[in-house]
């Protein structure tokens, strides 16, 4: 495959993505393929590579029933999609820093002395950073992984819709997660569109960008 064809494939993925609200309920994404989609999504960048995202894949009838009650305005996406992925940010993400950097050392991506210095620097930093500032940081990181997840799903031939209309104050506890630790970011419905989604327009670049 040539570079040009790869570029064209990527452009097709981006330009063909739509926010789909009605899915074919007969189409089910296997756990194996969903795992692959999530693995591709987690290649997204994150601040100091903390990877603070956590995914709750809701695909069982029981899970969807719980989610329906939390997102009544988006019931169609919940009931017809193959799954709804709840994206959370982990306020304890720094607990994994030593493991993440240690794995980089094991794979030869980073010398041990660099890892030790970075751990010392970041341990000091994250001991001082206000909780609100850390929360804002992980929300940005989780936004990056969410977009990559939607593009990965599109590359696999599926459709998605990012959802912000749900009860964020109750979702963690409703699924047995620690409310103070896991910050809700968005829901992403995933499946096969049952009908073509409405096309949307974008502002021209000269309205949203400038060069200096």
TrEMBL record:
Pfam families: Nitroreductase. Keywords: Oxidoreductase. CDD domains: MhqN-like. Residues 14-192 form the Nitroreductase domain. Belongs to the nitroreductase family. This is Nitroreductase. It comes from Paenibacillus lactis.
């Amino acid at each position: 495959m040539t570079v040009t064809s790869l570029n064209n494939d990527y452009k097709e993925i981006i330009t063909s993505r739509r926010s789909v609200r009605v899915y074919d309920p007969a189409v089910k994404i296997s756990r194996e393929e969903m795992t692959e989609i999530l693995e591709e999504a987690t290649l997204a960048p994150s601040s100091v590579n903390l990877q603070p995202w956590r995914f709750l894949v809701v695909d069982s009838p029981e899970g969807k029933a719980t989610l329906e009650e939390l997102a009544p305005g988006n019931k169609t996406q919940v009931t017809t999609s193959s799954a709804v992925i709840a994206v959370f940010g982990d306020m304890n993400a720094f607990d994994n820093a030593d493991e993440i950097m240690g794995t980089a050392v094991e794979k030869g991506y980073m010398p041990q002395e660099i890892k030790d210095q970075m751990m010392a620097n970041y341990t000091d930093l994250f001991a001082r950073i206000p909780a609100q500032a850390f929360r804002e940081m992980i929300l940005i990181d989780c936004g990056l992984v969410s977009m990559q997840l939607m593009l990965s799903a599109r590359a696999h031939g599926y459709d998605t819709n990012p959802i912000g209309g749900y009860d964020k104050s109750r979702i963690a506890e409703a699924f047995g997660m620690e409310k103070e630790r896991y910050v809700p970011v968005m829901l992403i419905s995933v499946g096969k569109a049952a009908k073509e989604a409405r096309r949307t327009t974008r502002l021209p670049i000269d309205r949203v960008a400038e060069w200096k």
